[in-house]
Amino acid sequence: MGDGDCRPLGFLIGLPFALLALILSLVGVVVWIIGTVLSCLCPCCICFAALANFAVGLIKLPVKVIRWFIGNFPC
Prior knowledge:
The chain has helices spanning 8-41, 46-59, 61-72. By secondary structure, it is mainly alpha-helical.
């Protein structure tokens, strides 16, 4: 079988962790909105842009968690 096959055990074990990551990603959405607004208001402060980039990483976290679990568990 190929490398991109479905691995149900990794998916099932990773679901609770992905749900926790989903909660963090919702926090990331709020932080991203605040960071984007603040960076538009004060473009000279680079830390708000870094905060928005960090929030984007939080938003992508559930997908990264599921992919990590699927990749580490055999069929």
